[in-house]
Design brief:
By secondary structure, the chain is α/β, with parallel strands linked by helices. Helices cover 23% and strands 35% of the residues. It has a four-stranded mixed β-sheet, with helices on one face. A four-stranded mixed β-sheet has the order 5-8-7-6, covered by helices on one side.
Length: 124
Amino acid sequence: MAPSKIMDLKPFVPARDFELAKRFYADLGFALNRENSTTAEFRVGSWRFLLQNFYVRQFAENFMMHLMVEDVDRWWKHLSGIRLQEKYPGIVLKAPELQNWGLRVLFLTDPTGVLWHIADERAG
């Protein structure tokens, strides 16, 4: 049991190029709530994370975020339609596939190398 009521929990996501990463997340459709020179708070739905102007390669390339959505195919259509791979060369964008752990997952890396699992629970 927590010593007091928990009000919020937000991960700090690393960014190699802070300005590029902010543009990337805005292009995804995430809302920028506030920012300063070291962090930028992004919101998607009612969920938030802090983009951090901080980079260590080994950390960034092992950092993962998991976003559970109602319909991963709609996310695939959206992400494919905004041509992310043309705007951000070097990112990875893989179509949704049923994984052996039971979720359909779309894989996306940001310009820093952070891996996003965008998933739903619908059968493949």
